[in-house]
Amino acid sequence: MRFEIITIFPGFFAGFFEHGIVRRAQAEGLVNVSVHDLRAFTHDRHRTVDDRPFGGGEGMVLKPEPLAEAMESLGLEVRGRREQNHKRVLRSAQDDTLEHRATRVILLSAQGTPFTQAVARDLVKMQRIVLICGRYEGVDERINELYCDMELSIGDYVLSGGELAAAIVVDTVMRLVPGVLGNEASGEFESFGVTDAEIDSDEEGVPRSQHGSGGLLDYPHYTRPAEFAGLRAPDVLLNGDHQQIRRWRREQQLRKTLRNRPDLLEKAILSEQDRRFIEEIREEEN
């Protein structure tokens, strides 16, 4: 099983990979972990990987171009073409065992779905896992749309970057690879020791929310260029109307929370306008 980690701080993982079962698993050839420096895919003398967000606001956003080049260096096409190619291989091979032996590209983000043991058990079926470590205010949303199969969050709190989250995902999934643990029953015992429902019910802290309403997820971020790979940043972020921008962000915040963490809406303070918009989203999906 292969893990690929894309980060602006590759040295972060040096100590982590030199100890414990991660080191043993790699030494025994059961797992391969590679770390890729995002700055290696820049082309200016300052090795710039970030830019200011469209629409204003604090912080910086990771640019799409270096991340797209990093994906290409790993032989990864955009998600749609990747899925088509995988289905073609399955049809030609006529082998059900290949169904899960694919690549999963994951964006580590405070706005992602919760990372649980059930998710780890699904990921261990993959042949390769690519982990994108977010930084600053996040990653240009177009990378998420084009390349990522899923967003993952390790909890309802905000880290300085996705490196710690990547280390947790690698460690959790790797322990489920046959042969990694000295006693296979150890992994089974841990898996059944605490149910996913009990894990999900632990909601200490809240995810980032720049609107001050509490408990909701962040909205998508975009930065230069305005158009990338045929996708354009929303016009509302480019028109300079701050009231429209705030409303758009609120609506996107509600939309993403409803999609990724609907449970958070139960305790959130919502206006009547918020509730109407949520009902509109539900009607769209039905």
Q: What percentage of the residues does DSSP assign to strands (E)?
A: 5-15%
SS-based class = alpha/beta
Radius of gyration, CA atoms, in whole angstroms? 20 Å
Task: Please identify, by name, the CATH architecture of the largest domain.
Answer: 3-Layer(aba) Sandwich
Number of strands: 9
Number of helices: 11
Number of individual domains:
2
Q: Please state the average pLDDT score.
A: 86
CATH topology of the largest domain: the name is: Alpha/beta knot
Description of the structure:
This protein has 286 residues and is of the alpha/beta class. The chain folds into two domains: 199 residues, SPOUT methyltransferase, trefoil knot domain (Alpha/beta knot, 3-Layer(aba) Sandwich); 59 residues, tRNA(m1g37)methyltransferase, domain 2 (Trp Operon Repressor, Chain A), CATH 1.10.1270. It is 39% helix and 15% strand. It is built from eleven helices and nine strands. The strands form three sheets. Strands 2-1-6-5-7 form a five-stranded parallel β-sheet. Strands 3-4 form a two-stranded antiparallel ribbon. Strands 8-9 form a two-stranded antiparallel sheet. A hairpin with a 2-residue loop joins strand 8 and strand 9. Helix 3 runs parallel beside helix 6. It is globular and about 55 Å long.
